[in-house]
Write a structure and sequence with these properties.
Layout (H helix, E strand, L loop, with lengths): L3 E3 L7 H14 L8 H9 L6 E4 L1 H14 L3 E6 L6 H9 L3 E4 L2 H9 L7 E3 L6 H9 L4 E4 L2 H10 L4 E5 L8 E3 L9 H13 L3 E6 L4 E3 L3 H19 L6 E3 L15 H16 L5 E4 L3 H4 L3 E11 L8 E5 L19 E3 L6 E7 L8 E11 L7 E4 L21 E4 L1
Parallel strand pairs: 1-19, 2-19, 3-4, 3-12, 4-5, 6-7, 7-9, 9-11, 11-12, 14-16
Antiparallel strand pairs: 2-13, 8-10, 13-14, 13-18, 15-18, 16-17
Helix pairs in contact: 1-3, 3-4, 3-10, 6-7, 8-9, 9-10
The structure holds pyridoxal-5'-phosphate.
């Protein structure tokens, strides 16, 4: 688990940040969420290496924003997005449940005080001994998407509740699709849930994930309609499903406009109403990015600014953080982070942005049209906004001898 630290700094603007976030939940758009507390911390502390600073109060207000937008759902935080102890502890205190991918994530949640009944083992790819570990710890809710996994569950978690993940072939609208690796076709889900009952398991429902950073709300409408057909098919076999897991996909504020959380809520609730009438199943959401993404800022430092001669006049800006130390989601330039420097507001020019390692894959943005101030210098700080999700957990421990990304929670 990457290193993280809690620092208690008092800041009189806390309340303002929380209010601001309430407005964000209702508003949508693309303005970043700025934390006075993080800014204050970064202005008053020196770090020699890149660091991720997380404002736990923004996580609190986002959690409340999601609860307001989707009051009928239970939140299962996707721990993989940011496994810092302090983040899990804060969400535990709010009464959040947890979606985990491994025994280590189960331990993190249990150590934070979560009851095993509040943990869902949502990874459909598990070792038999890891299932046995989870079962022994009291976890009773498991995902699967194949017969082979179901057989493992029947052996190592007898009688547990299982839900089947549906394959989403179309992830249009998502910046980080989670399509073909996960899920099975709807007919196969029907067959496998029947098989689960035959194996003595408790087939409780279905799940899907419409793709991470998903801005096409119609994707939830399609997925909910498909899930409803699976419910009906099972009902005809005398099996009554009771759980629909709506997955993640809720957005953070990168470069692109995103709908307001309230809009996600409106579309999702209308779709459930349309498909299930007044007989709603139990609903789960598994936000990762949308819950913690906007709470974090990475502070990095400019190591080098150079050019490649007359063929390409763009400046190359090398930072002390790259693809291997936390910014893996710049792969294919999928996630386009917003950058901030002390020179913002002055004249800018086009740049290629790269990481510090001796690996030529460690280029963050080349095709995307990034511009940075002409006044930017070696040694200047660059803040990378909305980096609370999928950064510290992606950071290599020692690639090229660089330390893993450290997290500071405020
Ligand atoms: N649930 C599951 C099973 C996932 O695999 C993921 C992400 O990989 C999530 C939830 C979180 O998705 P997001 O970060 O888009 O909210």
């Amino acid at each position: 688990r990457p290193d993280s630290t809690y620092i208690d700094i008092e800041h009189d603007l806390d309340a303002e940040v929380v209010n601001l976030f309430g407005a964000y939940a209702a508003a949508g758009g693309k303005e970043p969420i700025l934390s006075a507390k993080v800014d204050h911390y970064l202005a008053s502390h020196v770090h020699d290496e890149a660091v991720l600073v997380v404002d736990l109060d923004i996580i609190s207000s986002t959690y409340e924003g999601l609860r307001q937008a989707l009051p009928e759902t239970e939140v299962f935080y996707a721990v993989k997005a940011n496994p810092a102890e302090e983040v899990i502890g804060r969400l535990e205190a709010h009464g959040s449940n947890f979606d985990v991918a491994s025994p280590a994530e189960i331990d993190l949640c249990l150590n934070a005080g979560a009851d095993p009944s509040r943990i869902s083992y949502g990874n459909p790819i598990k070792k038999l001994r890891d299932i046995a570990y989870a079962y022994e710890k009291g976890v009773r809710l498991y995902a699967f998407d194949s017969e082979a996994e179901l057989l493992k569950l029947a052996q190592a978690a007898p009688g547990a509740q299982v839900f089947c993940r549906l394959l989403m072939t179309d992830s249009a609208g998502a910046d980080w699709p989670l399509s073909h690796k996960f899920g099975c076709p709807d007919e196969e889900a029907v067959r496998l849930l029947r098989r689960a009952a035959d194996l003595g398991m408790d087939p409780i429902g279905v799940s899907f994930h419409v793709g991470s950073q998903q801005v096409y709300l119609a994707q939830w409408e399609n997925a909910i309609a498909r899930a409803a057909r699976v419910f009906e098919a099972l009902e005809r076999s005398g099996i009554r499903l009771t759980l629909m897991n709506l997955g993640g996909g809720f957005p953070a504020r990168y470069q692109r406009d995103v709908p307001a959380l309230m809009e996600y809520g409106r579309i999702i609730r209308a779709a459930v109403e349309k498909e299930f009438g007044d007989d709603w199943p139990r609903l789960i959401i598994e936000p990762g990015r949308g819950l913690v993404g906007d709470a974090g800022v990475i502070q990095s430092e400019v190591v080098l600014i150079s050019t490649k001669g007359s063929a390409d006049s763009r400046r190359w800006v090398f930072l002390d953080i790259g693809k291997f130390s936390g910014l893996a989601e710049t792969m294919d330039e999928a996630i386009k982070y917003r950058l901030r420097t002390a020179h913002d507001g002055t004249a800018t020019g086009p740049v290629v942005i790269a990481g510090p390692t001796c690996d030529s894959a460690d280029v963050l943005y080349d095709k995307a049209d990034y511009h940075l101030p002409l006044a930017l210098n070696i040694g200047d700080k660059v803040h990378i906004l909305s980096t609370g999700a999928y950064t510290s957990s992606y950071s290599a421990v020692n690639f090229n001898g660089f330390p893993p990304l450290r997290t500071i929670c405020l």
